[in-house]
Amino acid sequence: MDVSLIVLWLPLALLLVAVWYALRWVRMRRGGGVSVALRWRPDDSREGWHLGIGRYEGEEFVWYRVWSLRLKPDRVYRRENLEIADRRDPEGYESYAVPAGSKVLRCDLGSGNPIEIAMGPGALTGFLSWLESAPPGRRVHWG
C-alpha cells in the first residue's frame, strides 16, 4: 500500500472515530445519563475504577464505559438484585478516579459478587430514589 494513501486515510479514520464518540456521548447523556464510576471486582486490589455513564431503563440500571465503541451497555443490573451493603467516602487515590464529590456504594447483587458504584451527590440522590421506587412488596436494604 502506498504511504501517501495511508497519510490520506488515517486522519479521515481518526475523524470518524472522534465523531462516533461524540455522537455516542450525546446519545447517552440525552437519555438521562449520569456520570458514574464502577468497579465490578472491588475485593481484587488490582481492579480499578472504570468511568462511564449510567442510565435507568425501567427495572434496569445500565452502564456504558466512556472509552468504548459499543452501542449496547457494558453492564446491566436489575433493580431487584441490587442491595446496598455499605456507603463510604472515596479513599486515597480513589478521589482522583471517581466523579467529584462522590460517595462509594458497595452493592450486593444477590449472586455473591459485589460491585462498587461511585457517583456525585445529584446522581446518588437519583439512584437512591430509583431504588426506593421499587414495585410494592420489594424490600430495600440500606446496609
Structure description:
The protein is an alpha+beta fold and 143 residues long. The protein is 31% helix and 29% strand. The chain is built from 3 helices and 7 strands, in the order αβββββαββα. It has a 7-stranded antiparallel sheet, covered by helices on one side. A hairpin with a 6-residue loop joins strand 6 (103-108) and strand 7 (115-119). It is elongated. 21% of the residues are buried. The mean pLDDT is 84.
Radius of gyration: 18 Å
Strands, total number: 7
Which series of helices and strands comes N to C? HEEEEEHEEH
What's the shape?
elongated
Proportion in β-strands = 25-35%
Secondary-structure map with pairings?
Blueprint (H helix, E strand, L loop, with lengths): L2 H28 L3 E6 L10 E8 L2 E6 L9 E4 L4 E6 L5 H4 L5 E6 L6 E5 L1 H12 L11
Antiparallel strand pairs: 1-2, 1-7, 2-3, 3-4, 5-6, 6-7
Overview features:
143 residues, alpha+beta, seven-stranded antiparallel sheet, 31% helix
Brief write-up:
The protein is 31% helix and 29% strand. With 143 residues, the chain is an alpha+beta fold. The longest helix is centred in the first third of the chain and has 28 residues.
